[in-house]
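RETRY 2/3 - previous attempt timed out on the joint model. Re-submitting the same 626-residue input unchanged.
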Amino acid sequence: MKAQISIEYIISVIVFILFATYIFFRVIVYPAGYINEIKTQRLKSEAYQISELLVNDPGEPLDWNIKPDNERIRIGLSDSNQNKTNFLSMNKIAEFNDTCNTNYDEIKRLIGTDYQFSIFLSSSGTASTRLINCSYPGMVVKPVKFEVSRIVAFDSTYGELIVELW
Amino acid sequence: MSYGKKGQIALIEMITSVIILFISLGIFFPGFSYHDRWSESLVLLKGKDLILTIDRLGKDNLYNLSFNLTALEDFLNQTIPISKTSIISWSETEGTFKPTISVACNCTEEQISALRSWFTRYGEPFIRVNNRKIKIEFWDTTLDSIIPGTDVLLIWYNESLANYEQSLQNYINDGNGIVEMKDFRVSSDIDAVQKKIFGLRWISKKPGKDVEFLLFRKKPDNSTDIIYNPYKYFYHMPFPLKTIPSTDDVTGCQPNPPPPTGKFSFNNTDYKFYICWPGTSVYFNDTEEIVQVGQQFTLDEYNFSLNYVDNNETIGISFRPEYNFISLLRTKKGESEPPGVAWGVYFYSTVYPGDDNPNRILIKANENYKGNLEMPAVVLNSSHGNRVAWIADFTSNITDWEVVQDDYKSLLLSLLLWASNKGAVGAPDIKLGYTASYINTVNIDMFEVYRFNLGLGYPY
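RETRY 2/3 succeeded.
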């Protein structure tokens, strides 16, 4: 009888194992959730920063749109002649769209991001036209995508600039 | 039997311990969740973007949309259609006149009729300033229960205010203002309310000489000067003058038939005018002068400006410095007044700012009281943002309200607008909403600074 294991002992061992397993998985999952959230926050912050850069920064040099590729340091769509927030230059919009359609990676370098992105600018109103159609050339596989929409003015009209990042 | 019971108790203890442990773990190691506020930030960002974009779309575009809700809704429907975004919006302005100013008037029915005839037309917005229309509504009210939701209280009644101190105080504490148009006859008329709220005191002095005219005491020193806004409104805000079709044979200009005519009255004189075709100029009969919109002109040595001609129906004329009033302050006793002092030398409303601060005097007589104190006809009071004004009753000698002259009406209008509540209504009751603000200026008829608030949010 002494060598026999009591039913209480067996149940206690099972409960202990379950308990230990529970704690183990909780500890394992915890940092992963934090890390994912940090990545998501960084993605969101960068999407906002890119939108802000495009809307309110004229780029460097100010006339980057007429400079050759090797002289372009930073890209921005703000009209440097007007020097007003949320007011874009039509010339820079056109140049941005042309550059992106021929060399997506060049736009990525000028924006300075490691993420993949798509940028669209559509004019509002009844005759809405897409002035920037800068789509990622490959297939979008990342499930986490963040989008920032900005309302901007240009050339006596207005539109919506959308920055998607993943 | 006793062994079996011991085993049961051990199991119960164990299960209890496990439950306690799990609860403790749940407390010390809660499930991971992180709530950022990006959705709120993006709503706020969109509001800011919308305001800036509106402003970038042309000069005065933001101003026009600030006060034109239909045009603003059209713009928002194009940019953030509710069908796609589920975003609801609201807008408001602060720091300037509301589109509709509600005046609670403690006065007689005849007085309310007179006010409506002076400041309204067909119930439509009639006052026009900086190219926008302002509607003024007048509502009869009692002083113990002032109509809530009104913006300014006009007391035009010789009733003692002694019993209404709390009611009046509550009213101005809500951001509203009070204009009191009244003559004080005896020292007891200056009761505790007149002292505390209007900041007046009675002085038993008379002017050294007969008062000939009244004038603005000084130019405002700066925009924080209490007289800054009433002074600005009087000298820049166009006063609307109605016209009626006439059968007159007009020779000075070619009006649209039938010739629309009206009168501009000040200093006991009426000046007849006609609106000339195509509605951009006005012909003054007495001076035989055609005045274009935007042009300054002179009548009886005073300067004026023709601010607008509206649909061949109304013109807007603003006074220009320096203008002198006559008869604003009733200074002599009438023949039918109670005894006390001989007819002709009984001075009414011998009051002075209670704090002896003459800078609160907007309009004063050209003569001082004996002892050299200035003799006010309009005294302002403002503490903690409250705005109250006393003005001598310029109608005390008048039985026909229609003959009240335009300079007095314009002065009263300036005080009502100054005292009116210029606060925002506030956001609607929604789950999530943020307001983006923009300080904007406009200077068409007069310089105005106001805050435009655009709110965006989600209803659920």
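The first helix of chain A runs from residue 7 to 56. Closing ticket.
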